[in-house]
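Thread: AAA family ATPase, structure

OP (GT): Posting the sequence first so everyone is looking at the same thing. Length is 340 residues per the record. Can we get the structure tokens written out before standup tomorrow? I want them in the notebook alongside the other entries.
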Amino acid sequence: MIHKLHIKNFKLIKDNSFDFKPLTIITGTNSCGKSSILQTLCFFINTNILNIEKSMYIQNFTRNLYIFDQMRNKDLHEDSIHITLNEKNIINITKEEITKNTEYLFDFEENFYYLKSNRNLIQDTEKIQNNIKFGVSGEYIGNYFSTNSLKSIDEIFYENPDSNKILNYHVDKWIKEILDLEISFTTNESIDIILNGFKDKNFSNYFLPSNISTGLNFATKIIIIGLSLKKGDIFIIENPEIHLHPKAISKFADFFAFLVSKGIQVIIETHSNYLLSKLRYINFKKEFKDEDCIIYYKDQQTDFVPIFIHSGKFTNINREKINFPTGFFDTDLDKLMEIR
């Protein structure tokens, strides 16, 4: 579990400390440093592993983080970058070297799962491989589902002793809940490849991922990964709202609150006011605790501001009601209210 993070001199972040909760939301205006918070966590992924292919995969998707002149804050012009995780794990980066003094590192796709924003559609076919579960773009989702679709999900998700425990049942259930579609993701192995597809309720129509909506593609990846986790895992998602209509985005707030209720830490970067508004309502209905959620907001002029939710209202740390910072929600909303 991530509890605290301190970042100094990294990209747009000059010197900021962050408290993390089971549900941590990072939001704000464009190009203000939101993704930078998530990227610093990748420095703590363990690459000293026996699986060479997996180690190379991790190094490949993090390699741009190691270009010092691209990483350091352009205003500070300092000679080193400092990142501290949970107060005990320290990484110092200079142009010459990276020094790690860490007691703990994340195990990629064992307890640390990352889904970046520039992900592609589910591939129509995937080459069979056993090194990566999902990939940071969800590019191996078919491989995982082919092997695990008929296996039981973790016991944290059991509704009752007699309930259906099979992964594909729960994936179908959440696709219906979030997208209001009675459709199933399917996989078939053929020699050395996986054939991915979607079938409707009666299995009478079959669709390749490339011939079905982008929103369904992206949502399916998030749902499968989320339902494949266990208590104590960390799930980081950049912009889960991509290509989804407002109702589906709102329903994903229910899904994330559900994962948090099962002991999974969910960290989200988002631009969606629909997601934030639904989280407020879920909190108002007491379906997740005040202390389980924190929001960080930033614009171009200010540092990250922590915002809390109490009884469905945005508050400061003292539970005093506040307005959400200007510049994020639609400033024309008050004008639209005049129509009433």
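GT: Both are above now. Quick notes for whoever picks this up: The chain has nine helices and 16 strands. The chain has two domains: 1-111+232-340, 122-230.
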